[in-house]
């Protein structure tokens, strides 16, 4: 039997007001901290984060993130880190700010802290950065040796952030088990280049069952800025369970189709999690899952306010050529779609998108 690998961040802290404990948790990691966040997130939380770090005796520099995780931005942030002679970088905000901090940290010996202020993706716990062009088209994944030393997520912050981003996190996490399961069934390797573990498979599955058990209530609570136990459960599913589950469990069609969808400008308004949801439904169609099963998953997506049709992610009436562009990109040689237990061609992907869209329309 081949090697199995499971990897994870060193620490994970979740709860109400834990943002004010950042200093206490980060203090063992270094002395000088660069906090990377966009203008909005700095306005919202910059002072609290600075106060917490300074109270723990750390030197702090707040640096504005310019919005895209591109090679140019990564190099700029790495230079800022070097200029401050920093030994810790905090990526604060959504997936792109965190990915940029992660990639910039690779140019240093220092520590990485993920501080998501939205539960919109499973980026915070991972060792992966997703690189885009300045115009927002997917370029590639970078997989690094190191994980964040600390992931800290404040559930009161998450509950008061836009509900749409929270829904997106559910969409991202909804894919995790289906992809890990597909990769496991086909004997594919994870991003660590080895077989998955039973541990990671169970974590991925727990992400799914947690969403099904708590997703609707959690979304309703977040719509009212409330933190309930369902919100705690779904934040954990979106962030920790999905993060460990996708990395150590394996990716497959859903994220490859997401990557294909980013090729079309019209989908750029849709969030990562929204596009992944369409990718998940297409994956289920691609795998030949029974009608009732796909309808059930689509029904859940619909109930939590995620898209189930192409029109809802900006593709009102996509041409065959547009779908072919998506399908070709999804089937690129290095794509995780080839982790499916069945061989997949661009024609299969295009038609699965059409089939998934038709099922989604039944819900209208
Ligand atoms: N590295 C990984 O393992 C991994 C996994 C999944 C997704 N990703 C990447 O993550 C990115 C998507 O991340 P995203 O969906 O978070 O979007 P994003 O990072 O593009 O944007 C997040 C937005 O939310 C805003 N925001 C953050 N906190 C807020 C708050 N509390 N209140 C109000 N607004 C707030 C920010 O200003 C920003 O505009 C993609 O690039 C995707 O490829 C990476
Ligand atoms: Zn994702």
Automatic annotation (TrEMBL):
Bound cofactor: record note: Binds 1 zinc ion per subunit.
Residue intervals of the Alcohol dehydrogenase iron-type/glycerol dehydrogenase GldA domain: 9-155
Annotated residues for binding of glycerol: 122, 172, 255, 272
Names of the cofactor(s): Zn(2+)
UniProt-annotated binding residues for NAD(+): 95-99, 117-120, 126, 132
Membership in a protein family: Belongs to the iron-containing alcohol dehydrogenase family.
Protein's name according to its UniProt entry: Glycerol dehydrogenase
